[in-house]
Amino acid sequence: MAIKLGQQETGSITYQVTEGSASKSNIYCEVPYASSDSQYFVFSRSNPDYSPNSTEYVRCKIGTWEMEVAGRGRGGVTMTYTGLFYFLRHTESGGVELVKVDLATGRSSVTGSFSKPLKARSLGTISPDGRYYAYGVVTDEKYREFGIELVDLHTNKKEIIDRDPYILNPHPQFEPSEGKQLMIQHNRGGKIDENGKLIKLVGDEGATLYLLDVDSGKRTELQVGKPYTTPATGHEAWIGDTKKMLLTVAASGDFAPAKGNLLGVKAGSPARIVSGGYWFNHVGTSVCGKFFACDDTRTADVVIGSVKTGKNALVCHSETSYGRAQNTHPHPYLTPDLKWVIYNSDRSGIPQIHVATVPEDMIGKLVQ
User: HSE-up of 235 (CA within 13 Å, CB side)?
Assistant: First the structure.
């Protein structure tokens, strides 16, 4: 049963919508994990009773907070701006299926079936036409090289389209309008030992981003991270169909909070500061591409803003610990109707899924 936590000084009303000790996460905020009509969202919940499909994907109705398990699987999740949710599910025969769930209706279907498991080591991403599915893989048994694998869901053909020693945490994201490019996170200097243990996620060179042409494999480096800016934090999202990325960089020097560490960038152009005033960290963009939601590293506050004007506003204090576990980070995102923010918080002592209303006049003030 959802717990109404009350109204904050911003006017936002917050709710804790889950209870219990099972591990939960609102997944990740690069895209909104919500139906296109903003009536439902999906979160993940651990349930080892169903191993190997030990992650439950729970569909929650906004407002009534009614819940149902939309499917059970094991990673590879991705989401489209049209409200289609995908995840990988192991089969009894030892293979794997890619399952698609329409969050508006709850209906699911198998969109890809493979006799052997897909060795995805990252979030997945789906092309806007639904034909291609991509994810990060290990290409060397001693973890000296990593790759991006592309699956043609019409033919089930798999192909490694990119290889590099530093794409160990690639965050691949299809450009959402044409789907001809993938954004790839390049953790320069990162290292994993031959047993698969992480030594360092990134080196002194810092992280940066590049665009990968799906057909040719050509890379286009984006002008973020050293030497252009402070290192990228590894949190980025496409800005609607503008073919631009929104990302955060280390909040220091020319990108200190007073100036702004939330940047916009497109291929061939220098990055620009979009918004400041906070230690922006995780970033998600709205389906319309006009707004963003971020969490603040130092306060764990949930903030939204306008990509165009740079104006931002505090929605709520998440009161989460912002610890080592990812589900203690807010990872906020806006629903498509811009009326709700979904986020994580362990304010009760255990990470739970929380929801906050966006005050009625807040969005309007951001664009004035």
Answer: 27
Q: What is the pLDDT of residues 147-199, one digit of tens each?
A: 999 999 999 999 999 999 999 999 999 999 999 999 999 999 999 999 999 99
pTM above the 0.90 mark? yes
Element (H, E) at 79: strand 78-79
Q: Which two tokens stand for residue 288?
A: 């319309």
Question: Alpha-carbon distance 289 to 244, whole Å?
Answer: 10
How confident is the model over 90-109, as pLDDT tens digits?
999 999 999 999 999 999 99
**Radius of gyration of the chain from its Cα atoms, rounded to whole angstroms:** 19
* DSSP letter for each residue of 335-350: -TTSSEEEEEE-TTSS
- DSSP-H helix ranges across the chain: 362-367
Exposed, middle or buried by CB within 10 Å (0-12, 13-18, 19+), for 19?
Answer: middle
- Of 201, 179, 289, the closest CA to residue 245 belongs to 289
Quote the CA–CA distance of 356 and 344 in Å, as a whole number. 11
